[in-house]
Amino acid sequence: MPLSGIGGITTWRDAAEFIALGCGTVQICTAAMVYGFKIIDDLCDGLSNFMDERGYDSIGAFRGRALPSVRDWDMLNLNHIEKAIINQDLCIKCGRCHVVCEDTSHQAITSSKHGKRHFEIKEEKCVGCNLCVSICPVPDTITMRALQPGEIDRRTGVEVRGDYANWSMHANNPTRAETSSDNSEG
């Protein structure tokens, strides 16, 4: 079945990711409204350069190549926890990260410090959704840091575990099979 990717496509890299996930076409609306129609030329040029560098002679040559890495949501490692970090030296203080987090997510980014524009992650509220990374216009200004086993997740107060646990094993899954360790005391 033909697929067309839509939602959040702003750069050639975004388009390439949708194509690598199986889309034959991509659609751009909001980015063209925000940046003007010239963004389409920039996207096409970037995608063409990417394809030349990788030796792809057509969209079909790399369409779907990322599919082997895709997993069902219930197989994701629920013990893997990440938090956003803002590089203050790169931040242009546009505030896009704050707006998107404040209005549509977890209110986990400050907007001021000492009366001046300042954007910083409130780690105790950050759920690691990656939305701020995707909206930031300056590459590598906001990155994600994986919490290491033994660290305390400041949002939950729980120590990060290093073992793998998917939804079928999670304590909040009402259909999970109980194990002897679930019933043991102490």
In words, what does this structure look like?
- This protein has 186 residues and is an alpha+beta fold.
- It is 27% helix and 13% strand.
- The protein has six helices and eight strands, in the order βαβααβαββαβββα.
- A two-stranded parallel sheet has the order 1-2. A two-stranded antiparallel sheet has the order 3-6.
- A hairpin with a 4-residue loop joins β7 and β8.
- The radius of gyration is 20 Å and the shape is globular.
- The termini are far apart.
- 15% of the residues are buried.
- The mean pLDDT is 91.
Topology summary:
Blueprint: E1 4-6, H1 12-20, E2 25-27, H2 30-35, H3 38-54, E3 82-86, H4 96-104, E4 112-113, E5 116-117, H5 131-135, E6 142-146, E7 152-153, E8 158-159, H6 180-183
Parallel strand pairs: 1-2
Antiparallel strand pairs: 3-6, 4-5, 7-8
Helix pairs in contact: 1-3
